[in-house]
């Protein structure tokens, strides 16, 4: 009975199978509803919405500005700004037993291997290497980017964070995957940077259109340009030669140009030589490791000595001379009264006669009243005044002013500063403001003389042809590892001999003297070639570095 009574008592406690299924179904539907309902995620307290990069004000610290701008542009992984590594001193291994014992420790060797592996991977990560001035994070002097592709957005970041760098001097891009489009963007970025930026290096960035000449535009401020290893051929050299100079334009800021390790041949060397005909600002040129043969070498050598002007250059020279003559006549005071010069002279003579007659009458009346001593003094003063009038009336209106130099003397680089000495007593020093004004005036005069067109330089007429003295401004020419033979050497030998004679004749006056360093080694001729030996002998005393070394050696032997 107890079992029968317990069964009905226990049955109501057990849950029904139907109700269990229904409750399970209800719970599943609730879970689905909770899953399907979108969860409202509230932003954490204190976190702001992402800001646009245009609103960011750069602080001048490249590391901070670049990271912040990359984050705002949406970059999650971007290059880090690091200091450029310096070469380490040579490692000298130690042979002590204690060091060997520590290296044999397995735990230490395992940690060293992990660190070395990590350091190797960190080395290949993209970085922006910088050189600082006096270890100041705001004084970035040079920027080096190597081995990773610079995209359009990265250039947009640079356009924001590079202008605040007031001491930036150089940008070096090596194998950064530039295209013609990104190069145009990079060139548009350069004017925004500081005025101290003078050096740009684009190496290992071959472009299909070879538009490197855009870096040498007339409004460019680049003074040192390196374009090594860019597969520049004769077509690219033609564009670069035209950027150096044409008949009506010239690049006046570029001082050094490195075109080494390219594919420039004879035709391209001829285009570069054409650019050097009327360029008087480039001092340093390297065409090492190219494909230049004798024809191109002769073209380069010809430009560096007296060369014949073409018909178009002669016509342009005549036009410039006529234009200069009209400008000088318009500046002189006599040109405005050229037509009425005779009448002016007659009037001045008549006025002078009448004045002298009146003065004579007054003198006669005064001598009757004045004592003898005073009369003698007045006679002497009248004679001196009369002498001054005669000396003044005998001169032309342009006399008394400094004579202008002829067109033949304008190109010699002479600086003529007007003699306007400030009148002051002895012992009184010039103030800082006066010094600044005098310096500014001299700088303006120097700039005015430097801008003179090379076609206005003194020329020589021979057999009905016009010869220009040639380019004496280029000081350094590097033609190592080309394909020049003894035929090309003869051209450079004639150039060096001509420049030596020119420098001896011009030793008294200051001015350009020609090549100081010429490198023709490792071409297609023997080192014992007579022409090469003579060139080396003639260039040895002109090389300033070797001359300095000889002086140091002489001082060491004879202190």
From TrEMBL:
> Where along the chain is composition biased (Low complexity)?
1-18
The UniProt annotation puts the region (Disordered) at 1-56, 324-427
Compositional bias annotation for Basic and acidic residues: 28-38, 324-348, 380-391
Listed transmembrane segments: none
Looking up InterPro entries in the UniProt record yields: Leu-rich_rpt, LRR-containing_protein_71, LRR_dom_sf
The record ties this protein, via SMART domains, to: LRR_RI
Return the SUPFAM superfamilies for the record: RNI-like
Q: Please list the residue ranges that the record marks as compositionally biased, kind Polar residues.
A: 392-401
Q: What is this protein called?
A: Leucine rich repeat containing 71
This protein's species is Pan paniscus (Pygmy chimpanzee)
Upper classification of the organism: Eukaryota, Metazoa, Chordata, Craniata, Vertebrata
């Amino acid at each position: 009975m107890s079992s029968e009574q317990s069964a009905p008592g226990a049955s109501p406690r057990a849950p029904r199978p139907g109700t269990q299924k229904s409750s399970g179904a209800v719970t599943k539907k609730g879970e689905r509803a909770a899953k399907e309902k979108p969860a409202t995620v509230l932003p954490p307290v204190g976190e702001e919405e992402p800001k646009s990069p245009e609103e960011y004000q750069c602080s001048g610290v490249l590391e901070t500005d670049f990271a912040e701008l990359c984050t705002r542009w949406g970059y999650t992984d971007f290059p880090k700004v690091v200091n450029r590594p310096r070469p380490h001193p040579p490692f000298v291994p130690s042979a002590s037993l204690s060091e060997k014992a520590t290296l044999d420790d397995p735990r230490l060797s395992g940690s060293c291997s992990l660190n070395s592996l990590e350091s190797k991977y960190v080395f290949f990560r993209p970085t922006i290497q910088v050189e600082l001035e006096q270890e100041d994070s705001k004084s970035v002097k040079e920027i080096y980017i190597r081995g990773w592709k610079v995209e359009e957005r990265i250039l947009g970041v640079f356009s924001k964070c590079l202008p605040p760098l007031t001491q930036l001097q150089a940008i070096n891009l090596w194998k950064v995957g530039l295209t013609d489009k990104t190069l145009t963007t990079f060139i548009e970025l350069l004017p925004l940077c500081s005025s101290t930026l003078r050096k740009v290096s684009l190496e290992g960035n071959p472009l299909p259109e070879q538009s490197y000449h855009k870096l040498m535009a007339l409004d460019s401020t680049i003074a040192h340009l390196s374009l090594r290893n860019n597969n520049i051929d004769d077509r690219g050299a033609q564009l670069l030669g035209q950027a150096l100079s044409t008949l009506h334009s010239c690049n006046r800021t570029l001082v050094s140009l490195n075109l080494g390790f390219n594919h420039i041949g004879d035709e391209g060397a001829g285009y570069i030589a054409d650019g050097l005909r009327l360029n008087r600002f480039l001092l340093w040129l390297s065409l090492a490791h190219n494909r230049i043969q004798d024809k191109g070498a002769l073209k380069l050598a010809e430009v560096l000595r007296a060369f014949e002007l073409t018909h178009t250059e002669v016509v342009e020279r005549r036009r410039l001379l006529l234009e200069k003559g009209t400008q000088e006549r318009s500046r002189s005071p006599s040109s405005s009264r050229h037509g009425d010069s005779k009448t002016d002279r007659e009037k001045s003579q008549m006025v002078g006669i009448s004045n002298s007659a009146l003065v004579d009458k007054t003198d006669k009346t005064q001598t009757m009243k004045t004592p003898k001593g005073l009369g003698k003094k007045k006679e002497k003063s009248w004679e001196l005044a009369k002498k001054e009038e005669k000396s003044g009336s005998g001169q032309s209106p342009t006399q008394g002013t400094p004579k202008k130099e002829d067109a033949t003397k304008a190109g010699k680089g002479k600086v003529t500063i007007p003699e306007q000495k400030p009148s002051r007593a002895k012992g009184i020093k010039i103030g800082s403001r006066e010094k600044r004004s005098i310096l500014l005036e001299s700088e303006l005069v120097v700039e005015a003389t430097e801008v003179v067109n090379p076609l206005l330089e003194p020329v020589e007429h021979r057999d009905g042809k016009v010869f220009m003295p040639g380019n004496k401004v280029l000081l350094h020419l590097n033609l190592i590892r080309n394909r020049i033979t003894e035929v090309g050497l003869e051209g450079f030998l004639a150039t060096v001999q001509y420049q030596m004679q020119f420098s001896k004749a011009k030793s008294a006056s200051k001015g350009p003297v020609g090549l100081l360093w010429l490198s023709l080694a490792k071409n297609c001729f023997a080192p014992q070639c007579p022409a090469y030996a003579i060139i080396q002998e003639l260039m040895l005393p002109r090389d300033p570095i070797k001359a300095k070394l000889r002086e140091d050696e002489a001082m060491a032997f004879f202190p």
